């Protein structure tokens, strides 16, 4: 029997300017094929709105809990048995456009077990650099 997910979690928020339109960026944030190009080793659809994120040959199941086309997507992580848990970890990507400067910003909210905030910042900067390479922005 799996133990409940009781680790202390923190909400980490970071924004990055990205030189690409929301229409181009969104598939990289909301689809298995797009995410596997920059975010983790592989992503596979499991069933319905559920995906399997694979890092270092370990499975991490998540459910798409909310999505607005070309705007936002939220992944809520499940237990090892693919069940919902109390106070689940989640990852949310939101795209915002500045009407004045025409810049696009990717906002990341990472609610997960506590990590060193400097390490988390470096990790996201590295991941977003990979994303920029993919979209040319």
Automatic annotation (TrEMBL):
Entry-linked InterPro entries: START-like_dom_sf, START_2
Name of the protein described by the UniProt record: ATPase
Domain START-like: 8-136
Signal peptide feature range: none
Record SUPFAM superfamilies: Bet v1-like
């Amino acid at each position: 029997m799996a133990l409940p997910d009781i680790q202390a979690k923190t909400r980490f928020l970071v924004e990055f300017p990205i030189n690409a339109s929301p229409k181009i960026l969104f598939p990289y944030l909301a689809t298995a094929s797009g995410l596997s190009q920059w975010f983790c080793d592989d992503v596979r659809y499991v069933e319905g709105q559920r995906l399997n994120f694979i890092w270092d040959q370990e499975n991490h199941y998540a459910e798409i809990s909310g999505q607005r086309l070309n705007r936002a997507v939220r992944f809520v992580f499940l237990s090892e048995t693919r069940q919902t848990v109390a106070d689940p970890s989640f990852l949310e990507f939101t795209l915002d456009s500045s009407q004045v400067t025409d810049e696009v910003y990717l906002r990341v909210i990472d609610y997960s077990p506590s990590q060193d905030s400097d390490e988390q910042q470096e990790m996201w900067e590295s991941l977003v650099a990979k994303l920029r390479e993919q979209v040319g922005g």
